[in-house]
Design goal:
By secondary structure, this protein is α/β, with parallel strands linked by helices. It has one domain. The protein has 15 helices and four strands.
Length: 274
C-alpha cells in the first residue's frame, strides 16, 4: 500500500473544512536561496540553486492546503551544520554547512550497497528537508502526533521518499543510511544523548530500513539478505509500514488537494536528485 496514491478523494469532508482550506491554491509558499559570504559554501549555493532544489520541494508543499504562508530557505548558519523549522516565522531552514557535511561524509565513506555518490549526497538533503517539512505540517495543520514528533517527522520523510521509482528510492535510502551509520559511529549514548527528544541515530537508521523493506520487499530485500536489517525486525516491517502509511493517510487526507498528494507530484519534486 502506497500512502500517497491510497488517499481517497475526501469529498464528503469538504463541507467541514475551514474557510482557508477551500481557497484554490492555499497560502503562499516562498523560497529563498540566501547567498553565503563564505567562499567554501558558495559552490554548494550555486549547485543547489542550479538544480532548483527549493522549487522541487515547493512542488511537494503545493499538494497541501496551507492556512499560512511557509518559507523554504537555504542559508549559511555561521559554520553550524544544522536544519530546523521555526514556528514563530513559519520557516524551514537548511544550512549550507549541513550539505557540506553530507558531501564530506559521502566522500570519506563508500556505500556498501554500491549506491552512486549523488544518492549519498542528495538522499540525506531530501530527507532533512522532508523531516523539517513534517514538523511544519504538523504545526501549520494542527495534525495530532502520538509519540515523539521527531520520530513522526522521520516517518513522514521516509514515506514520501518511498514514493520514488524503486531504483531512485533505493539510491536515496542507501544514501541516508550511509550518513546515519557514520553519525551513529560517532554518537556516545551518554545521559544527555539518551534524554534527547531524538531517537538514537542507530534506532532512526533501523526504523528507516524497516519502513523501506516493508514498503517494497522486492527492491529492499537485500537489506535482509545481507544481514543489514535483522530478520526478527524484518518480519514485522510490512505491518509497520502499513500502520504508518494508514496513519498518515488518515491524518492528512482532508488537507490535501483532491484528497491525495500524488506519486507523480512527488516524483516531479525530486528530479533534481537524479
Amino acid at each position: 500500500m502506497r500512502w500517497a496514491l491510497g488517499l481517497a478523494a475526501g469529498l464528503a469532508l469538504a463541507a467541514a473544512l475551514p474557510a482557508w482550506a477551500a481557497r484554490p491554491g492555499g497560502a503562499a509558499i516562498r523560497i529563498a536561496y540566501q547567498r553565503p559570504a563564505q567562499a567554501e559554501t558558495r559552490a554548494i549555493y550555486r549547485d543547489l540553486k542550479a538544480r532548483r532544489v527549493l522549487e522541487g520541494l515547493r512542488t511537494i508543499v503545493r499538494g497541501v492546503r496551507l492556512p499560512y504562508a511557509l518559507t523554504l530557505r537555504l542559508s549559511a548558519c555561521g559554520g553550524e551544520p544544522d536544519a530546523w523549522y521555526a514556528p514563530e516565522n513559519r520557516t524551514i531552514t537548511v544550512c549550507y554547512e549541513y550539505v557540506r557535511e553530507v558531501r564530506e561524509t559521502a566522500a570519506r565513506s563508500a556505500s556498501a550497497s554500491g549506491a552512486p555518490r549523488h544518492g549519498a549526497i542528495f538522499g540525506p538533503v531530501a530527507q532533512v528537508f522532508l523531516h523539517e517539512l513534517g514538523h511544519a505540517l504538523y504545526d501549520l495543520l494542527a495534525v495530532p502526533v502520538l509519540g515523539r514528533e521527531e520520530d513522526a517527522a522521520d516517518q513522514f520523510a521516509a514515506l514520501v521518499l518511498l514514493e520514488l521509482p524503486p531504483g531512485q528510492a533505493r539510491h536515496a535510502i542507501d544514501g541516508i543510511a550511509q550518513l546515519m551509520r557514520s553519525q551513529a559511529a560517532e554518537e556516545t549514548p551518554d545521559r544527555e544523548t539518551l534524554a534527547d527528544d531524538h531517537s538514537l541515530t542507530a534506532q532512526r537508521l533501523y526504523n528507516l530500513l524497516c519502513l523501506a523493506y516493508g514498503a517494497d520487499r522486492g527492491t529492499f530485500g537485500y537489506l535482509v539478505d545481507d544481514g543489514t536489517l535483522p530478520r526478527g525486525r524484518a518480519a514485522q516491517c510490512g505491518a509497520e509500514y502499513d500502520l504508518a502509511a494508514s496513519a498518515l493517510q488518515t491524518l492528512f487526507r482532508r488537507h490535501l488537494h483532491d484528497g491525495r498528494m500524488g506519486r507523480a507530484r512527488i516524483r516531479r519534486a525530486f528530479r533534481w536528485m537524479f
